[in-house]
C-alpha cells in the first residue's frame, strides 16, 4: 500500500516467539516503541528525547503523549542540502525502524532480521 503524500518507505521485521497479544501490547506502548529516542546517539546528533504519557499510557483514543527534546534545523531547499536530505533521509529511516524492531526483539529475547522493501 502506498500513500502518495509519503513517497518514501522503510520497514524492519522482528520474528517473535511470543503470543501476539503480548507483542502487540509491547509495541502499543509509546514508551517502548520510542525508547531508542531516549538514548543519546550519533543518528540523533547527540540529542535525545523523553516522552510522557497520560494516565491511559497513551493507548486510547484522545490520549496525550508529550515529547521533550530539541534539535534546531531547517529543511534544505537547494542543492546540495536537498539531495543530501534525500540521500540521508533513507539512512535515518532504516536506522529508526531497525531500532524499534531490535528493541522489541531484545525485549522478547528474539532474533531480529532486516527486511528490505
Structure, explained:
This protein has three helices and four strands. The model has no long low-confidence stretch (mean pLDDT 75). By secondary structure, the chain is of the alpha+beta class. A two-stranded antiparallel sheet has the order 1-4. A two-stranded antiparallel ribbon has the order 2-3. The longest helix is centred in the last third of the chain and has 27 residues. The chain has one domain.
Give a brief rundown of this model:
The protein contains three helices and four strands; from the N terminus they run βααββαβ. By secondary structure, the chain is of the alpha+beta class.
Describe the SSE topology:
Blueprint: E1 13-14, H1 20-27, H2 30-33, E2 50-53, E3 65-68, H3 81-107, E4 112-113
Antiparallel strand pairs: 1-4, 2-3
Task: Pick out its properties.
single chain; alpha+beta; two-stranded antiparallel sheet; 3 helices; 4 strands
Low-pLDDT parts are none
Helix share, percent: 25-40%
Number of helical runs? 3
Largest sheet at a glance?
A: 2 strands, antiparallel
Structural class: alpha+beta
- Strand tally: 4
What would you report as the Rg, rounded to the nearest angstrom? 16 Å
Question: Which series of helices and strands comes N to C?
Answer: EHHEEHE
Instruction: Tell the overall outline.
Output: globular
Q: Termini, distance in Å?
A: 12 Å
Indicate how many domains the architecture comprises.
Answer: 1
Strand order of the largest sheet: 1-4
